[in-house]
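Hi everyone, sorry if this is the wrong subforum. Our group has a chain we'd like a structural model of before ordering constructs, and none of us has done structure prediction before. Sequence below.
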Amino acid sequence: MSSHKSALKGVKEKTNNELLVDQMPNLPKPMTFWIQAAILLVVSFLIYSASIPFNYVLDDKIVITDNAYTKKGISGLKEIFTTESFTGYFGEKKELVQGNRYRPLSIATFAVEYELNNGLNPKMSHIINIFLYGLTCIILLLVLYQFIGNQNNKWYWSIPFLASFLFLVHPIHTEAVANIKGRDEIMSLMFSLLMLYGSMKYLDFGKIKWLLFSLLSYFLGLLSKENAITFLAIIPLTAYFFRKQLSPRIGKTMFWLGITTIIYLMLRFSTAGIPKFSQEISDLMNNPFLGMTPIEKMGSILYTLGKYLVLMIWPYPLSHDYYPYAIPKTSLFSIIPLISLLAYAGLIIIGIKQFKSKSIFVYSIWFYLITLSIVSNIVINVGTFMNERFIFMASLGFCLAVAHLFYSYGAKLLGKNGLVISTALFFIIAVIFGTLSFLRVPVWKDALSLNKAAVEVSGGSARANSFMSTAVFEEYKVTTDKAKQEELLDQTEYYAKKAIEIFPDYNNANLMLIGAVTERFKMNHDIQYYTENMKPIIIRRPDIPFIVEFSTYLKDKGYGEALYPFYIDVGKSLLKLNDKRKGWSIQYLQYAYEINPNNKDLVLTLSKAYELAGNTSRAKLLFDAAQQMQ
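Answer:
Right subforum, don't worry. Here is the predicted structure as tokens:
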């Protein structure tokens, strides 16, 4: 710290109050820095400590609880680093999203935790997340001081501290911190900032150790999450804005960062596969733009980009779920996408026109746009419309811009007591943000609380409703009170049906509805209720394995005769369809045939089903048998 301070000298402030760094700036006194760093770490624990006793939720099962490689502990590290990131969960590589996923480093930390704790320990994982988040904010503070410096002797009133503190308390970060899986976001930004710090030190002083530090940090950032690749553009941007002249070492720096990128991409492609950008993902839950026209797709993208801006300024209400159709299908020419287009066009125009001014505000604009680009759905389909954790890295640009505006213009515009008023306003905003973050954390307690909060905000999301149905059903399974069970089954059906209204083919929603129907049947043994409620489910998704399993269970329990007309009805209904569901008609017609093989109409219908399925020999055999019937 002290050696860094001695190397950094001076800061020049222009008359227009735009901070322009002509020389390397001064750092604050070491005691001031450590006080600020301690505040950042303490506040991070104050806001997020409530999450420490929480269990695993959401995608934690993919990377931790149901991941076979993670649960091998240290012996699973080789597989974690040499396979696509979903392989440990699914047991095989699947083409679920464009480009697949390769984020082994955070998963590796979970495996190490598993080894050290001799099993799962969510409490330790939450503590590590909070600590890493606080540490990232401290690194951000150090990095910003390296560029901007300390402008006065007030420890609480400098752009680096204001920006770092605002970043720390911003509510949009709660998902990245309170959800254990969000560690990949934290680690990617942390290592990216260290890469930026090392690169600038190398540009300033030319010591190879700083270049090596930067390359290693960058590689670790990429292994955490691919968002770190955007810092390839942030390095020259930062060097241009915060140094009087570009260092002659910038070319060498970018060359070796480029080599590091190539090494990472080779590793990624050999494990996760080469991205197939032309590949059409047929699952709506992994391709929100499925079935949209180009106009609708761009409208939806602009809608989400506008929502990101709104959530930056006023982060309420928040949701972990923005799946179809929490963000509605929207034409490019609708009012919200057009306003969003104008807003981003304005930012780009300001960024271009004022580029030579080297204003911190302009730098913040470009930082925001560059780091947002990779998750915008413009470059690559990220698998959902948006997510609050996606904006984690880009939000740094917003926080820096706000800190700069308050510091550079607050006192000037507010008159005699401008500094006092500006300081008070900033910290009132920070307190509001911190309070919203604190109040948001309990949502992540468990699946029920998380999904309950999600359906209140993202009621149009099939996924949110389906997951809420699942959470309620899981509650039902551990409840013994009959009245409470009935209530929970009602809720299970309600949310499952709501999800199906949005997305009729949704596998999980239909499965939850099957669960509710079968559980009610077990309670009252009402076969008419069962058949009436199962028919629409089977027509939508006859391929769900549990349907066949429960049908076998019912036959074994002696309900075959009662289900006989139901099987014929369902079989004929499926046969009338003009898609792959038609083939499932054989399954149900065959059930009926096994109960009564002497129904001529049934046998002829089954013969037709086999013929359409291409099994002509079986079709002929059945047809001939039918001809001999009365």
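For your construct planning: Residues 26-56+120-178+284-454 form one domain. The mean pLDDT is 91.
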